[in-house]
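ok trying again, last paste got cut off:
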Amino acid sequence: MRNAGVVVLCWVVACSSGGKGRMPPPGPGSGSAPPPAVTLRYEIVFGDRIAGHAVVVRRGERSVEEDFEFNDRGRGPKTHTQLELGRDGLVDRIEITGVDYFKRSIRELATCDAQRCTWDSNDEHGKGERAYYVPLNGGVANDAPLRALAARPEGVALAGGGVARAQKAVETTLVHGGTSVHVTAYELGGFSFTPDVAWYDDDGALFANVSDWLSTIREGWNDMREKLLELQSPLKQQWRERVAKLTSRRADKIAIVHARLFDPATKRIIDDATILIEGGKVKAVGPKLAAPDGSEKIDARGKTVLPGLWDMHGHVSDSSGLLALANGVTTIRDLGNALEPMQKRKARWDAGTELGPRLLLAGLVDGRGALQAPIGIYADTPAEAKEAVATLVANKYVQLKIYSSIKPELVPVLVAEAHARGLRVSGHVPAHMNAEDAVKAGFDELQHVNFLMLDVLATRDEDTRTPLRFMRVAERAADVDLDEPRVKALVDLLVAKRTVVDPTLGIFELMFTVRPDHPDPTFAPLAARLPPQVRRGLTSGGLPVPDGMDAKYRESFKRCLQLVKRLWDRKITIVAGTDGTPGFSLHRELELYVEAGIPATDVLALATLGAARVMRVDKRTGSLAPGKDADVVIVDGDPLANMSDIRNVLMVVKGDLVIDAVALQHALSIAPR
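nice, full thing came through this time. structure:
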């Protein structure tokens, strides 16, 4: 996931959305002896697995101390927080030390007096008027200064920009093991692209922040996650439905006129083209066609019109659909999610009650153990492997994704069963195999360029489920000679087996190159337009860089670019996947392919018709031709001349749904260009 060092923490403990109490701001102290400490313990849950804990010690209403840690396949933060609140309930002082998600040493310090706040960390330095400071590396203790928020319906100014708001939404009493607790859900806005929901007890302390992927919940109450999810889901759903009504409309007949249309089949531009759409399908395409009576006319004069973009590597959440369509992505291949929530999400997006792209589902299957995937189906025997494939088929999945903890001896079983049932097979290279082994075992596709590099940088004895799979490539890929025999043999094998590669270059650019002086290139071009609290984290998320290795890490990323260009030159099929924030990450992925030396016409083709061909659905989608799905993106500019213009999405058509992308971006707190 993109910006894992920040985003994962925020999703788990609501640091991006904050915690909110139901009580008024704390009053002045009485001068008596300090009250006894209250200790609260939390579990950090990935899927159904407890992956970490937080221990929060509250001393009265103004002093909080916390130890926070979780393990996500060898990654994960370990932090200690000391927090002091002022009389207004906001931060007087907060200090956080430890390591972040990628084990980079961190120290974050913010101090505020009655008028001003000053803050400093590895990634950010700032100052401004007294406001609510949200730490970049916050854990559960971050809810403490937010208890004042619920008492201020007008909102509270945030340090670094923006205004935070909390609104009481729903409450319930939970009963478990003979103990009951009354909790209240608050809708929280102003921290990110979309509002969040978090649960608080009657003392104003965070009780839970739950999702179908990552959750934080009070220790001993994990069995209540499903109930809380059930109660909060309508709150978020209603907001997304409101956004859909405000930013999209149905149109049975559409005529897009005066279009500068890119055709991925010929890789050419059709000037002054008309695209006629009826009932969600393309009816005709050509120069200067007459628009039928009753058509909604869309004038694309001076704009570039493309088939809808494809992201071939997503792990979508409910809010992903809005971000994707706002950026012109009309199809996402999801490569690992929980079965039931994914089916419900797909149904809502297909119905159009919520905005979201078309979804193609690939099911993640992994082996059990300490380094297992946080979510998916698990198989440790041939019988379980066959059962896993049968489950995917029964749920209309089109692809199997084999993950890192699958036993090597089970790979042929999974591949044979999947192919026999009509599923494509892709994945990580399982531990104690290399890329060559996976291709020979029958993988149709490999995810992530680092696994190709590891073919020459790691041995089968090493455990590539750990952060070694990132660190080794960052440290040594710069020294890989792409003409050495082992690299050439691997590339020859990919050619011979017609193996597809999903390189996800953007996530390695993030890990290898982001520094305080070099913000995440995915978001840097539009940083000024982003929600302020999102903008603050743009220099977080990189790997720890040993002394003297900065240039080597950057060169290692360049070597990854060069390898992808080498694959393209050998006519190996590349698909544009991101494994990152929907929409924005795809734009950067396409820019990187152009930087690698792949012609822009080929890049746009692989992100549209090429992806549809790989997924064997090109007869109904991928290009704007009669009879195909009417998935259209209208861009201000010319991405064939400047791929960065792909970021300037004005309008999106998905079938019979016309989406005002600019209005949708506004709803996501993204400022206009």
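cool. Confidence is low (pLDDT under 50) at residues 1-30. Residues 4-245 form one domain.
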